[in-house]
């Protein structure tokens, strides 16, 4: 007779991210196409493009309210992020678009979110935050070209669920929060 597996708490793979508006997503996708021509690898699908702010990983479903409460408490002014730097990390073979200057509001947002999550007992990463949009995976990289900057008007941030499927990870925006601290409510899709 088959043994019964011990009951395990249901978990969601979660992270907080800046999720682009349509125009920003298009511009990022074009940057991905441009970088891919130089460096090769696998382009990320346009609907996956984002900047991770805080990574939670597998989180018990019954902690979702606590995750949401952390984001509810964050109040930061909107800002613009100028993505003006292409880069490549050898250790994970990722090609990305990042920033050469960090707006103070971005630092505030990342720090406020991570501090509240940490205080609530979530095991968030304490490595320094390097804002980046992953554009290519499994790339060989190469000489870093000067790139055309993408301006991202940051007005909100999102709680995102990562669902692993045979075709790769699919990301689902669960909720968004407007900057200035007011929540916009439940959001079933991306965009
Ligand atoms: P990446 O784009 O550099 O791979 C969903 O997996 C998002 O969370 C991706 O943006 C991924 O970053 C990021 N991520 C994955 N694992 C992480 C970790 N341990 N710490 C921080 N971010 C992570």
Explain this structure.
With 191 residues, the chain is α+β, with helices and mostly antiparallel strands. It has one domain: Cyclic Phosphodiesterase, Chain: A (Alpha-Beta Complex), CATH 3.90.1140. The chain is 23% helix and 37% strand. It has three helices and eleven strands. Strands 3-1-9-10-11 form a five-stranded antiparallel sheet, with helices on one face. It has a four-stranded antiparallel sheet with strand order 2-7-6-5, with helices on one face. Strand 5 (85-89) and strand 6 form a beta hairpin. The termini are far apart. The model has no long low-confidence stretch (mean pLDDT 91). Bound molecules: adenosine-2'-monophosphate. Adenosine-2'-monophosphate is lined by residues 15, 52, 55, 94, 125, 134, 162.
Rounded to the nearest angstrom, the distance between the terminal CA atoms is: 49 Å
The string of secondary-structure elements, in order, is EHEEHEEEHEEEEE
* Total strands: 11
Instruction: Let me know the average pLDDT.
Output: 91
Query: How large a portion of the residues is in β-strands, by DSSP E?
Result: 35-45%
| Named CATH architecture | Alpha-Beta Complex
Q: What value does the Rg take, in angstroms?
A: 17 Å
Q: Which class in CATH terms?
A: Alpha Beta
The gross shape turns out to be globular
Give the neighbour order of strands across the main sheet.
Answer: 3-1-9-10-11
Name of the CATH homologous superfamily: Cyclic phosphodiesterase
**Relative helix content:** 10-25%
Largest sheet: 5 strands, antiparallel
Low-confidence stretches: none
Summed up, the domain count is 1
Listed once per kind, the bound small molecules are: adenosine-2'-monophosphate
| CATH topology value | Cyclic Phosphodiesterase, Chain: A
